[in-house]
Amino acid sequence: MDRELERYIITGLVLILLVLGISGCGVKNVQVQQPEEKEQISQPTISNLEGIAFALGCMFDPTSCQEKKELGKTEEGK
Questions:
Q1: What's the structural domain count of the chain?
Q2: Is residue 49 part of a domain?
Q3: CA angle 72-73-75, nearest 5°?
Q4: Separation CA 24–CA 12 (nearest Å)
Q5: Domain of 69?
C-alpha cells in the first residue's frame, strides 16, 4: 500500500473513533413512565427484611439462633 493512503486510512479511523467516543458522552433523554398513584405496588419482601436478615444470620451462625429459641421458650412459660 501507498504510504499516503495509509495515513488517510489511519486519520479517518481516528476521526471516526473520536466522533463515536464524543457522541457516547452526550446526555440522552429517557422518558420514565411513573405508575399512577392509585396503583400501589406491594412488595412483601421489603416489609419482611428483619425476618430475612434473621434467617440469613441463622444460616451462618446457628448458635445465636439456638440461644434466642431457648430464650423464647422460657419467656412463654412465664
A1: 1
A2: yes
A3: 65
A4: 18
A5: 45-78
